[in-house]
Design brief:
binds adenosine-5'-triphosphate; 251 residues; binds magnesium ion; 7 strands; seven-stranded mixed β-sheet; alpha/beta
Length: 251
């Protein structure tokens, strides 16, 4: 089992889309994934179309006992391959430090609860506060998502610094999984330029392939199904890209 925290400091760049794309890649392969939604916006939770749930990741963080996450994990509308530790708006109350063990509560709560999964995907909110710190403390690796825009390099640098800070404080085994560039339009020279700029600084840490911008992403999310289940040329392109990224995360 490998646990990957997906983060960015900037909002709306595609963290939840990446988590859902990778969960969908697992779904398509028939391997088991757990999505942990740490974002009070609960976008990943909604897109995974779960049945009504009693507990959320907020309850898990409040309780904090080893293994307690098991009580809050639910099935999803995607079928038996993909499970969910759901979020809701009230999880925002847990975004401040509380006590000495504050940043490691998620990790402790997952003890023994995630052994049956091939991959755990943690969707972080667009900040570096306590919820994201919990995500980084519970992960084996951290995947930084960015768009190929003017702030891409600066944003990636800050996010990678946060990963390094988490490694030296709460999680010695944390590794950067890479920088994933999302919403790429291959015909735009500005996008090519920004990707080259990132590669110039971070080399192989900038993942290949990049994720193209395709309307199928939003269509599948709106329908509550994996993009891998959507039938269009754009959906196939996005699915192929996430499949390659999943390969890289699993090795
Ligand atoms: N590759 C893509 N092609 C088309 N639309 C995309 C793509 N990636 C993301 N989007 C759309 O952009 C919007 C923002 O993406 P997403 O919610 O994944 O970002 P986020 O980083 O999780 O945002 P937040 O910081 O608010 O949590 C969504 O409507 C999503 O469907
Ligand atoms: Mg999100």
């Amino acid at each position: 089992m490998s646990a990957v925290a997906v983060l960015s400091l900037k909002g709306g760049v595609g963290k939840s889309t990446t988590v859902l794309g990778l969960a969908g890649a697992a779904w398509a392969r028939g391997i088991r994934a757990l999505v942990i939604d740490l974002d009070p916006q609960a976008n990943a939770t909604v897109a995974l179309d779960p049945p009504p749930f009693a507990f959320t990741v907020g309850d898990v963080l409040a309780d904090g006992r080893p293994g307690i996450a098991r009580e809050a994990i639910v099935r999803t509308g995607w079928g038996p391959q993909v499970d969910l530790l759901p979020s809701e708006e009230a999880v925002a109350h847990r975004n401040r430090p509380e006590g000495a063990d504050s940043a490691t509560r998620l990790r402790v709560s997952l003890a023994g609860a995630v052994d049956g999964y091939d991959i755990v995907l943690i969707d972080c909110p667009p900040s570096l506060d306590e919820l994201t710190r919990n995500g980084l403390a519970a992960a084996d690796s951290a995947l930084v998502v960015t768009e190929p825009g003017f702030f891409a390099l600066q944003g990636a640098t800050r996010a990678l610094r946060a990963v390094e800070a988490a490694r030296t404080s709460v999680n010695l085994r944390l590794q950067p999984a890479g920088v994933l560039v999302n919403r790429v339009r291959g015909n735009l020279s500005e996008h090519r330029y920004r990707i080259e700029e990132l590669r110039g600084v971070y080399g192989d840490l900038v993942l290949n392939p990049v994720i193209p911008e395709r309307s199928a992403v939003q269509q599948a999310q709106g329908a509550g199904v994996p993009v891998q289940a959507w039938r269009s040329p754009g959906a196939a392109e996005v699915s192929d890209a996430f499949d390659d990224i999943l390969d890289r995360l699993l090795t």
